[in-house]
Amino acid sequence: MKNTISHRVADFLKNFPPFTFLNQKDIEILSEQISIIYKEKDSVIFAENEETHSSFYIVHKGAVALKKGPKNEILDMCDEGDIFGLRPLIANENYKMEARAYEETILYAIPIAIFRPYALENEAVGNFLIQSFAANTQNPYSKSHRGKLYGENLNGDILDTDSKLFDIQPVKYSKKIVTCSATTTAQEMAEKMIKKKVGAILVVEDKLPIGIITDKDLRNKIVTGEYPITTEASVIMASPVITYPKKLTITQAQIALIKSNISHLCITKDGTPNSKAVGILSKHDVMVSLGNNPSVLIKAIKRAKKYKDIKPIRISIMQLLSGYLEQNIPIALTSKIITELNDVCIQQVIEISLKKMLTPPPVKFAWLAMGSQGRSEQLLQTDQDNALLYENVPDELKEKTKKYFLELATHVNKGLFEIGYDYCPAEMMASNPKWCLSLDEWKSLVHQWITNTGKDEVLLSFIFFDYSLSYGDTELTNELSDYILNDIKENPVFYIHLVSGALQSPSPTGFFRGFLLEQDGANKDFFDIKRRALMPLSDAARVLILSHAVKSISNTPERFDKLAELEPHNRELYLACSYSYRALLKFRTKQGLLHNDSGQYIALGDLSKQEKIKLKSTFKTIKELQEIISIRFNSSNIL
Amino acid sequence: MNNFFKESKTRIFDFFKIFEKSTDPTLLNRVDNTRFVVLDTETTGFDFDNDRILCIGAVSLLNGVISIPDSFEIYIHQEYYDKNSAQIHGILKDWVMDKPSELEALQQFLAFVSDSVIVAHHTIFDITMINKALERNGLPQLTNKTLDTAFLYKKTLIMSNLLERKDKYALDDLADKFDISKKDRHTAMGDAYITAIAFLKIVKKLKGLKGKSEFTLGDLFKY
Description:
The complex is a heterodimer of chains A (639) and B (223).
Chain A: H1 4-13, H2 24-31, E1 35-39, E2 44-46, E3 55-61, E4 63-68, E5 73-79, E6 83-84, H3 87-90, E7 98-101, E8 105-111, H4 112-121, H5 123-135, H6 140-143, H7 148-151, H8 165-168, E9 179-180, H9 186-196, E10 200-205, E11 208-214, H10 215-223, H11 233-236, E12 243-244, H12 250-260, E13 264-268, E14 277-282, H13 283-290, H14 294-303, H15 307-326, H16 331-356, E15 365-369, H17 371-374, E16 386-390, H18 395-418, E17 436-438, H19 439-451, H20 455-464, E18 468-472, H21 474-490, H22 493-502, E19 527-528, H23 529-547, H24 556-566, H25 571-595, E20 601-602, H26 609-632, H27 635-638
Parallel strand pairs in A: 9-10, 12-13, 16-17
Antiparallel strand pairs in A: 1-8, 2-7, 3-6, 3-8, 4-5, 4-7, 10-11, 13-14, 15-16, 15-18, 19-20
Helix pairs in contact in A: 1-2, 4-5, 12-13, 14-15, 14-16, 15-16, 16-18, 19-20, 19-21, 22-23, 23-24, 23-25, 23-26, 24-25, 25-26
Chain B: H1 2-20, E1 35-43, E2 53-62, E3 65-75, H2 86-89, H3 102-113, E4 117-120, H4 123-136, E5 146-148, H5 149-156, H6 171-177, H7 188-210, H8 217-221
Parallel strand pairs in B: 1-4, 4-5
Antiparallel strand pairs in B: 1-2, 2-3
Helix pairs in contact in B: 5-7
């Protein structure tokens, strides 16, 4: 059935091997036989030892994790354009791995009976499939191999799953090689390296690598004045180049770099300097692959040119996070680092979005993170909550300016979505015209909330008043903060509303000191740690800190620490709150990592006795705190 | 347009009838086991009496799988033509193509749909267009159960005063929210595909709202 959709499928397939080796007509014929499968997050595509399906799969959208063994360790992650489930094509036995949708995923299922003739007839297709299957990688051309180890076990088991995954992971090297000729001058080279944002340039002759020049070479040889900037590449380059084949694991690459004490390896087609250079591997690439160093991650984020480039780095951030938690690094430090990394991701998304705009911003603006990201408490990826604030403009420019920033915000929201932040279900996002305003408009809006407070206004204030600046102008944000604090001071009734809102979060325990569980919906019988434990603390902290007119501390534990300083007589309670909050946050984060979700709902049955006691001990603190604020902000005490 | 609302009222009434008659055993079927046909039509305009269907695109949906071999796209030969709407659907009157007559196309369509549940975006429009065409050709009206993604989508939105709801959500809104590529938008088949993916995501959300018990066809019709 040839139709619009089969064309659409063909259009997609033709960009990815092995389909790249087929001619257009064959791809079209194939596309007419394909099924499109929608998989919810976490649903199984096939299980270990399951009988093989009649199709293999290519990921159209989303990501699929291949897992194996009793610990269900992730062996491979397939994303857009990657193929998996090839076993039935090659071996007549059950699946050796489980395939599970890591996020919401759309797959194309390609019937093997229809595809097999192409694999047999077309050598390139056949080779690709054998290699993919053997290497257990989906695309040996883009990612180099998953290591020889797998190759030796063509039909056998995957190796001992205990070994840390990264040891045998392929190194992701840069395929965009920046080259120059032997006669290029140092100055030209430097300009090219700046333009391409690389730290090394390859000197080639007839496409073969003859030398390499790095930042360090330029510094040592040119900046020192040893050579003039007109010096030709051949004079200052390091030669011969140390070359390696594409089949290089992270561990091998690390050893190679250490052994020769160099910062860049050249990857060539056959591994010798006599074949074409296909990529450059820097120390930086290796570090990123290891994913255990925040500063390299930041560097990698800043190099991203597309939203899509940031997504894999976010996976590394999650690995880093689980490593920190495993090593019991203090949660305060952990959340600082992770928040910093998240902020850099957001900043980069904004940078990329700004490049998509035809003109630079007409006036200064500030991108505000709200809610948990604003409080620097967002360790796991949750929904987006953001707003945009821009400088006041004269009336005649108002419409145009708003239009510009709305367009920018739409790009940013989409970019954040692409790197893994879901859209806010209540549309509290800067692309919503209600949340993209000039300074004066914001002022009159918050003034409205503060002086004319209803239930919705309290909720809005709760979300908005925890803002922090993600990107842009500090002055604007400061001015708004000052305005808010002043306005609240003049309208103390607002505190009463805030407190009643803060006391509304449901209590964590019931009459018999048992946990209160959710009554209905998808999370029935789960404990809602966010609403019942974290929110009462963060809501109370907000009221108290506002009453002391302290600005620019939005992190909840930090607010409590500050409060302990400001109110010595309540010092102990506040410190307990600060501690409880950190403990709860850590708890939630661990749960979230365990289940690949936001960690908000906890199955009590899965907790150990000790964990339950630990949780409960924080509840007493919550109760005491709520008592304090309900007395202090009692209407008779304020008016 | 007046016509449109009258029609939609009677439709909603129909839904209630189905719901009241909860004895209908098919409503107990699991959504996973139900064949849905997600369709879209391109027409010469919005007038049920004068305008004509130029193209029907439809995909079948069973247990989360859209099978391309089991899909349907047909361009229909029509005498009547409105060049204004061509800007939207891009179908030219004398496009060089073997276009079957309306009767032939409808017969093929009925065979494809069979007794599946029909899903569309603003379903009432497409169903009325098709029913009018069936009537003209002396064929019986559609008796299939129908679902509307524009309507179901609203049920997935959170209940919050902070969220401003729109009266009408266009297919473009859904595509944006669900991150579905708008390639081939405004072709019948392209829109049917977008609607199908949106429908799957809506079902997933409604399933989540319902909790852990089995999700049946009745759950989709209760709204």
